[in-house]
Amino acid sequence: MDVDCEGCAGCCIDWRPVSPAPSDHERRGPRRPLDDVYNLVPLTRDEVAAFVRAGFGDVLVPRMWAADDESDAAVEVDGVRVAAVGDRPAFFVGLRKPPKPVAPFGTERTWLDACVFLDPETLQCRIHDDDLYPDECADYPGHNLALDQRSECERVEEAFGGDRLLDADAPDVSGLLLGPHAVGSKLFAYPDADELAGTVERMRRGDLTDADRAAFVGVAVGSRPGSTEVDESRAAAARESVLDAASWAGEAVEAWTELAGSVDADDAPAGESVEVARGAPETPGWDDAA
């Protein structure tokens, strides 16, 4: 896609607090997420497994949806009708978004929820040239255009001016899994709803535990494409890897979250001291960007 991303990262940041007009989640379906994470990037099973193998299991987070329509397949968890595949709660797995001190679109430095891999100074992705870079990110906003949905590029143009989406023709995109084809590959089914007691409320609060996240990630890694069945041995190994993970990115999530509760954004440290010092790769900046 031909887009101008310099100084933007609108697809990687929850910029609703600095938007001049109210904005809801970018959605591609009718169901309401239980969480309030803006623009969650849905990862495929193979991508989830790759993050776990690379030691980044601690930056993965699940999403479930409320089943508002009585005709939707649903299962009750904590008194809430949760969207389901058959009798199993449905979920995605994406990347965590801690608060970071960022200044997109020429705004003042502000605490905004941002992708765990986003450099808060350059607003570039730290894994852009890595094998871990998700297809959903690489194709953005191709999926939106293919589905005739507005993109963050267009929303940023409307709110702050300028040209961000430089090519509005829908490209041939990979990874656009829809309907039954997504089950077990991008849309996962948790095998035992009773195990999720308490999870709905924690997900709504943005307060999932490490064990909560590990359980969902394990199911995703153990899932079989085209099926709701789960290989328990694969799932158990992934759960353990997530609980053992101590990546620079996971540590940075905790550091940024603590700082956001105690320091003004103007006084917050740079990403170099919070992320690079913990092992994050540096980003090239825009002068050297291709």
From TrEMBL:
At the top level, the lineage of the source is Archaea
Kindly list the organism's lineage: Archaea, Methanobacteriati, Methanobacteriota, Stenosarchaea group, Halobacteria
Q: Could you identify this protein by its name?
A: Uncharacterized protein
Q: Which Pfam families match?
A: DUF7531
Return the annotated region ranges for Disordered.
264-290
InterPro entries (alphabetical):
DUF7531
